[in-house]
Amino acid sequence: MLRNMIVLLLLVLYAHDVKAQQTFTVMSYNIENAFDTIHDEGKNDYEYCADGKRRWSTHRLLTKLKGVGKVIAAADERKPIDLIGLCEVENDTVMTHLTQHTPLQHLGYRYIMTHSSDQRGIDVALLYSPFTFHPIENHPIRPNTGKRTTRDFLHVAGIIAGGDTLDVYVLHLPSKRGGKEAEKQSMRICHQLQTHTDSVRTQRQHPNLIIMGDFNAEPHSPQLKLLTQNHHLIDRTAKLPPGTYKYQGEWSTLDHILTHTTTLAHQHTRILTLPFLTEPDRSHGNTKPRRTYLGFTYQGGISDHLPVVSVFQIER
Asked: In 10 A of CB 193, how many CB atoms?
């Protein structure tokens, strides 16, 4: 009798494990100015140096990164997130700290990142679990935006369970603060991205594409319409509450996960509103993201953006 109960329990646990392994989860997260404390030659990163006006320090950096690790570890109770697209990461030093000195250090995460000509020195990175995603090629793509320099976007192709290829893009489009010129740059980058993804899709027998990052644009913007209308890409974050960014009391969704998949079935997407990610909004009511700085005043939070998580089922 006892033996039969043990066998039954093992079968239940095995079935649960198999079900968990058949899911594939991705996260997109702008972690707001994740700088180290050392000046990078040719970059305007002085305010985040140890002697800069923000009084940035290794302690503050590690506090932020431990928070990021906590978010990633808490995002899925069943198993570690498979892929995390990160925006506003300065360099390899930051990514090394994140993978080796935070709650992620025991999960085996590895990363790939860009090293672009952005004036402030911030880049994008893809954090991945080597147990569920095996990269086969990766390269940064330099935007065709004329003379003005901006962030590269990242393309990584890898093998997932079942042997199919997944093509992942991580990008951080120019800030809205640049006005019409920034929007023109964003549109050029989206045209370039569209051409690249169309080419990749024709090369794959079973194309699976995920594009994620901070678009600095809402779902109804020309940038998102360009990518989703007539190009087989679905914006999984288009109608999710409350939004990923709050400005002067108004929520907006600037961070997106776009997909075109054949062997990955979308289950659900959500914006994470874990309690330690938000704080009361005393000026406009309800809550807002608990950011690292408000102006030049240190707040001790993780980011001014909320992360987005999508869960897929791997179809065999």
From this structure: 23
Strands ordered across the beta sheet of 165-172: 134-141, 153-159, 165-172, 209-214, 255-260, 234-235
Q: What is the mean pLDDT of each run of 10 residues along the chain (316 residues)?
A: 42 41 92 96 94 96 97 92 98 96 93 94 97 97 80 97 96 88 92 95 94 97 92 90 96 97 96 96 96 95 98 90
Type of residue found at 298: Y
SS3 65: helix
Alpha-carbon 140 to chain mean position: 16
N residues, the chain: 316
Q: Which residues contact 66 (CB under 8 A, 6 or more apart)?
A: 101, 102, 103
Contact status, residue 228 vs residue 195, Cβ threshold 8 Å: no
Question: Contact 225/191 with Cβ under 8 angstroms?
Answer: no
Q: Which amino acid is at 157?
A: A
For domain 22-314, which architecture applies?
4-Layer Sandwich (3.60)
Coil, strand or helix at 250 = strand
74: helix, strand or coil: helix
What is the rounded distance in angstroms from the CA atom of residue 110 to the CA atom of residue 247? Answer: 33
